[in-house]
Structure formats: structure tokens, C-alpha cells
Amino acid sequence: MFRDKIELKDFDKMDAEYKDLLGRVLAIQADCEIGGPHLYVKDMLPTAPTKMDQLIVARTAAEEIDHFRKVARVAGEIGVDVSYVLSWPNEKRYLDAFRGLIKTWEDYAVFGFLIDRVGLYQLEEFSDCTYAPLPRILPEVINEELGHIGFGTNKTAELAAKGDEQKEKVQRALNFWYIKALDMFGHSESKRSERYVYWGIKRRTNAEAREEYIREVNPLIENMGLQVPDPLKGRNYL
Predict the structure, then answer these.
(1) For 153-210, what is each residue's pLDDT tens digit?
(2) Are 13 and 61 in contact (CB under 8 A)?
(3) Count of CB atoms situated within 10 Å of the CB of 91
(4) Which own/partner pairs from 81-88 qualify as long-range (CB within 8 Å, at least 24 positions apart)?
(5) Which domains does the chain show, CATH number per domain?
(6) 188 and 206 in contact (C-beta within 8 Å)?
(7) What φ, ψ does residue 204 adopt, rounded to 5°?
């Protein structure tokens, strides 16, 4: 297991596999950061139910774009240009969760509750990353992601508590995004996942991270009076 701390000046001396893996994960992370605003800003910003909700949508988008900027800078320093993801159509995004459009407030709330939470799990993978410049950008990014998750979680619970038709809409959104969230972790038996851990770029395998996520979110879902969806129905990556 590789555990040395690598600075930018040492990067060119590293094994080709290490360089490839780090470049790949930075590109995917950058795409996820910019992919969120591309999902919801067009429809959710003008239709937010209150002035405060509209402000939160705008602020969340601005923070995610800044997260992209920070990740893109780290990637650019090692020669990986991720600017192409700025103008990618949604259907080309690396992860399926970012390939559509969010058009309802229920979807926006559950997206923050579930998908932004996966994003936090992915960021936490880098907290002790062997490429030292990457963990340095994390404190502010993680703090802002916690805010996005908190808003999504609270809004999901608030909407579900209204009961009847409103609760049914939240449940439908939950059914959709729960599966997308679990798929975001990738294949459980991924060999690349194991190599990320070997090189100290990530700290958990895909399967380990997904199981931790399930243990965290399932009780939250149940506490909202909602049903935990079938974790296998409609999955692409088991």
C-alpha cells in the first residue's frame, strides 16, 4: 500500500498508473461539481416557492461552480484539462445521476438529500489522499456540501410531512434518486476501485462506501415516514 505524501513537484516521478488514476478521478469529480447546476438551475431558480428558496438555489449553484473551479485547478496543475465538462450536454456526464434535468421541487429536495450526500462521501475519500494538494482544497468544499445536504434533507422531510399527495410525490422522487445514488458508487467488484485504495488516492472501496451510505440514509428515510426503496430494483452497478 502506497502512503507517501506527494506534492506537485514530485508528481512527474510517480508511476504511470498513479498519474492515470488521479487524473481520471479529478475529471469525474470536476464533472460532478459542475453537473449539478446544469441539472437544476434552468427550471428550479425561477420556480422556487419562496424568496429564500430561490436564494438558496442560486447560492448552491454558485458554490458548486466554485468547487469545480478548485478541482479544475488541481487537475490543471498535473496537466489534466477538465474545461470540456463546462459545456458538455447533460447526457454525456460521467455519472448517470447528472444526465437528466430536475424540474420539480421534490426532485430538487431529494437530490440535495441523497445525491449531494454521495458527493460528500466521494470528497471524504480524498481526506487523506496521498496527492497532498487535493486534501488542501477540501475543508471549505466539504463545509458547503454539508449545507447543501442539510437543506435537501430538511426540505425533503418538510415536504413529506405534508402527507397525502405531497408525500406521494416525495416518495416517487426518493424512489428515483435512491437508485441513482447507490449506482454512483460504481461496481462493487471494481478492480480500479481497489487500485485507488492501493495508491492511497481513496480510502474505501466502492462496496465499503456504498454500505456506509446505506447505513446512514436508510434510518433518515424511515424517520421521515417514507419507504426505503428496493436497493436492487433498476440498478446498473451492483
Answers:
(1) 999 999 999 999 999 999 999 999 999 999 999 999 999 999 999 999 999 999 999 9
(2) no
(3) 9
(4) 82/26, 82/27, 82/30, 82/31, 85/27, 85/30, 85/31, 85/34, 85/35, 86/34, 88/31
(5) 8-223 (1.20.1260.10)
(6) yes
(7) -130, 150
pLDDT one-digit tens code per residue, 13-72: 999 999 999 999 999 999 999 999 999 999 999 999 899 999 999 999 999 999 999 999
Q: Write the DSSP symbol of residue 131.
A: B
Query: Which residues have a Cβ under 8 Å from the Cβ of 20 and sit 6 or more positions away?
Result: none
Pairwise CA distance, residues 39 & 191, whole Å: 30
Half-sphere exposure of residue 183: CA atoms within 13 angstroms, side-chain side: 18
pTM of the full structure: 0.96
